[in-house]
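Section 3.1: Structural characterization of target chains.
Under the original work plan, the team committed to producing a structural model for every single-chain target entering the pipeline before any wet-lab resources were allocated. The record below documents one such target. The sequence was received from the expression subgroup and is listed exactly as submitted; it comprises 471 residues.
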Amino acid sequence: MNALPPRLRSHVVILGGGFTGAAVAWHLGQSARPSITVIEPRPFLGGGLAYSSEEPSHRVNVPASRMSLVPDEREHFSRWLAHDGEAERDPDAVWRNGDVFPRRRVFGRYVAEHLAPCLETGAIRHIRDHANDVKRNGDGWIVTASGQPIAADMVVLAMTHPSPDVPAALRPIADAPGFVADVYSTDALGSIAQDASVLIVGSGLTSADTVAELDRRGHRGRILAVSRHGLRSRGHPQLRGQPFGDFAATPATTVLGLLENIRSTLAAANAAGVNWQSVFDQLRLQGPAIWSALASDERTRLVRRLRAFWDVHRFRIAPQVEAVLDRRHAEGTYDNIAASLVASSREGDRLAMNVRRRGERPVETLHFDVAINTTGPAHGKALRTNPALRSLGDAGLIRIDRHGLGVETGRDSRAVGPDGEAVPSLFIAGPLARGTFGELMGLPEVARHAQAVAAEIESRLGTPTSTASAR
């Protein structure tokens, strides 16, 4: 490698160009202080796993009026939608109460269009690849992508969703033709026959999207969703209200205390004629204060005991998707149950599933043509499966947080190493940091955190030093 002369601008390299990485890059790009490189294998920035889907039935699960690249301009996306004319091209996006739930790829296009000027001027550079190695280099970093070393003064880890794990009970059928390990892989559902009987493992947002996509493709066979608690994602209210309650003035310091506060607030909301969604909207807004007030062991208890209940109320499904689930349930072709998978096997062309229903001792065997895994991203294995994260972990620079939610992160969004010390100039953005910040999966929260990370980087920008590398 040949040494280059000192750079005139600091260089920030962002690993991951889904919404999180794109939002950090966009905020940094507004100042034009650093040069920015985003390493993302997809053809455009801003889509990521969630917002690059080409499936028409995949819709944003938050009203467009609450989604924005710019946290301080809540209607930013809604104004773009009105100008873009998407509502006219997709009239089904407008629900009966006037809320708009566009297709996910539309939001991805919105983000990409706002980054386009920075890409055209060179303020942001997009490398279409995966980063496969990250190493310290003096006070800076060397990131390797496309076989080329890239010098960086600061690095931002903005990866979000690793592939799901195959549950142990499903591993005996992992190679079976009727098993779908990752529903987001290319055309994962394309070969499923219209009359096939389908088992969906999981009952959250991805499970609901899977039912909607199968239905859109003309599937009319039996669908059964199985999860430990049997909880289906809830929907949005017909009339949205203001957030209700206060969980931050005197935040609970135990999970039991928090649960009592939630129950009493829900009772007060019901007495006042306020829907439960308004209470959970307040919980979401005050999530950082709630999470910060809990000791580490209480946070772990919250994740283990209440996460499934929180997720189905917090991560609501778009009403268009909810309508499909309701219709299929009324027709008798869709149901979800609380049960645990015990084992699986192949019996000719069919898949035999041994399940134990919640609260019951006997194990029953159910047969399906297809089994689909929608258990969600395996965040706990990210340090093993992502080469860039693995290289940092092997070097003792990052570690999985104690709750298994992502990477250990300080309050300033810098990575915290196994020694408990902050790693200079290595930042964590978005869902990977939720072990520290709590609620960091919803788009409004991720947008605010991306803005905060960009501001933290801006505050630390100094005069860059020469780094021996090619760029």
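The radius of gyration is 23 Å.
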